[in-house]
Structures are given as C-alpha cells and as structure tokens.
Amino acid sequence: MVFKMNGFLKFYVFLMALLVFLGCEKKQNRDQSSLYVQELGNIQKWNLKDVELIARIETYRGDSIYSISRLPQSKAAYVALDNIKINNRKKTQQVRVLVKPLNNAACLGIRMQEIYPNRVDALFDLETSSLAGINTIGEYISGVNTRAIITEDGWIECILEAKVDANYIRLIFGPSTKNKQPSGWESEVLQPNEILIIPSSLRITEVPD
Fold first, then answer.
1. Does the pLDDT value for residue 58 go beyond 90?
2. Could you give the strand order of the β-sheet that contains 47-49, starting from the edge strand earlier in sequence?
3. Is pLDDT larger for residue 131 or for residue 20?
4. pLDDT, tens digit, 9 for 90 and up, residues 12-25
5. What residue spans of the chain are helical by DSSP H?
6. Distance, CA of 194 to CA of 192 (rounded, Å)
7. Does pLDDT of 141 surpass 50?
8. How far is CA 83 from each of CA 157, 169, 198, rounded to the nearest angstrom?
9. Do residues 118 and 94 touch, judged by C-beta distance below 8 A?
10. How far is CA 165 from CA 23, 88, 90, in A?
C-alpha cells in the first residue's frame, strides 16, 4: 500500500511540475511576442509634413481607413514617426502596412532611417503591386528585403525589412509616383497622388533569426 501511494505521489509531483513548466513557457512566448512587435497605428503620434490625412466612411474589418494626399505645390511630403526604439540592433526590423491606390500614378514610399544620411528607401508601385525601386545609403544598413502582397480584399501589404545598427530609427512613409527615384520619393511631384491606408496595420516587428 505504501509503495503504491509513493508511486502515485511521484506521478502527481511530475504532472504538476510539467504544468508549471508549460505555463511558464507559454507566458515567455507571449512576453517575447509583445517585445518583438510595435504597433504604430496611433495617428496622434504621426507627424504630418505637407500631407492631408482624412478619415473615410468605410472601414476594414472594423478598423478605420484614411486617405493620405499631398498638399498642392508641396516641395516634400510625408508622414514621420520619430525615435522608434530598437530592442536588438543586430536583428532584422520589418515594417509592414496595408494600402491601396486612389489613382493610377500612386506609389507608396517607405524609409527606415538611422542618423542621417544612413537609410533605406523602398518605392512600391501600387498599380502593379510590385517594387518600383530600392536604395540604401550608409554603412549601418544591411540585409534589405522587400515584398508586396495582395490580400483577398484587394489591399496591398507593403513590407520592408532591414538590419539597422542603431538603438532608435525614424520611419517615414507617404504617397509618391513611379517616376521618382527611390532615394527622393518624398520630393515634389508634378501630378497629384493619393493613397488609402489602414493605420492599425502599420507596425514594426523584430524578426527572429
């Protein structure tokens, strides 16, 4: 009887230890997930440079949709988010956002910038859902990768990845045209261009190795 009770107690202790271990591992995974992803959809923190941000009536799966258009005769136009903290400067940072064109000439420019002039620029052609061009300046940017994915709802997910050897970065994005060089996509354009954006989709993720 004593032998059977000891065997039962050993099994009970083992089972409880296993449950505690699994619970700790699950919590650690949740903590790591929250560490790797930074949501950047709070438009109150967006710095607008000669662009107009207008809320649309329609929504996307309950999330707000906005249009971004350049103000007339603007020399340079973009949205900027400053001092985005990088948790691990040796890992790849991934920026992604959902957009749509509102005219055939519309493109989306995205820039990840360290201390000027170190940066990477990507220009996405929203008419063809493809990359129009990419440009890297400086020695602190490496491992650049881009892609554009069309969702089932017809939105275009634009993705820019790069290793940025910095503790903080500046993120710049906005409408442009396909006749611009990637390094100067935010500069003056001769024709109006406007895009739709889902702010809640904008995020930067630390990609695990």
1. yes
2. 47-49, 78-85, 168-177, 106-113, 119-125, 130-137
3. 131
4. 545 555 444 445 44
5. 2-36
6. 7
7. yes
8. 24, 6, 22
9. no
10. 35, 9, 6
